[in-house]
Specification:
The protein is α+β, with helices and mostly antiparallel strands. The protein has 6 helices and 9 strands, in the order ββββααβββααββαα.
Amino acid sequence: MNDLLYKTQLPSGKSVEIFASYCDDNPREWECNLGKFYVFKNRYFSADGDLDDVSEELTEDEKDGKCTLIPVYAHVHSAICLSLDPFGNCWDSALCGYYVVDAETAMDIKDLRSAVMYELRTYEQYLNGEVYGYTICDKNGQEIDQLCGVYDVALYLHDYLDDADLKALKYEGCEYI
């Protein structure tokens, strides 16, 4: 079941519907992740493993120190925000864990912090229910495309909408673009 969040008719005659997508897999289970995200036990999220049980979870390279540990901070107050830098709020934020990348992978990535932050942002969207789907129909009401499990709707809509349609969506205040 999907909840309709936004629906509009565009200048080209196409229509767009954006809806909440609930049947999505946890991005921490994807095989393309750079490393593992270990967290202290908490009631909000679990990531790839608990730091409290880390000795059982670590690979040999991680135990031997052949990896890069990146501290991850969380701010939890009506939503979960993840960052590689402290938030400066001692009441709702703290160090929540570490992102672990093996040394070889870390050396291959030009901007490791940005790559890790991109993964954390995707996980943050998953935790906060910010995963969407969309349907695009032509001016006759025929479906052109539909997709669920989308983390960045604008990225996909650019393939089907011209600049005037995208500008109209932004002008209307569509927060998903």
